[in-house]
């Protein structure tokens, strides 16, 4: 079946950087929009960034600090996170529309200390 596997989470001090990656595997005929959500304890899930044939989009809270990119040949989406803040602490989940269905990764934790 289709699987999304994230990597790259961890702990970093405020002002630091992390790079998240998500690889899609399985029976793939098409991959369209890909992106990242995050959810912190006690907070609503937040759409962080998306990438599609139409371009990229970011939450206002991460604009200018995060960059989403994809490698179509490798079915990979990456989130480069710079100038991290404690408010960025959350579980980050990648998603992708694969074969016209939305699929999710298992999540990776990002912790930013002050």
Provide a compact summary of the structure:
The protein has 114 residues and is mainly beta. The protein is 0% helix and 60% strand.
Shape: globular
Beta-strand content estimate: over 45%
Specify the biggest β-sheet: 7 strands, mixed
Return Rg in Å. Answer: 13 Å
The assigned structural class equals mainly beta
**Residue runs with pLDDT of under 50 for 5 or more positions:** none
Helix/strand order, N-terminal first: EEEEEEEEEEE
Number of strands: 11
What's the overall average pLDDT, rounded?
96
N- and C-termini, Cα separation: 40 Å
Number of helices: 0
What's the helical proportion of residues? under 10%
Quaternary form: single chain
Defining traits:
114 residues, mainly beta, 0% helix, 60% strand, globular
Would you give an account of this structure?
The chain has strands at residues 3-7, 10-13, 18-25, 31-39, 46-52, 55-58, 66-71, 76-81, 90-98, 101-104, 108-113. Helix content is 0%, strand content 60%. Strands 2, 4, 5, 6, 9, 10 and 11 form a 7-stranded mixed β-sheet that branches. A 4-stranded antiparallel β-sheet has the order 1-3-8-7, with no helix packed on it. The chain is mainly β and 114 residues long. It is globular and about 45 Å long. The chain is built from no helices and 11 strands.
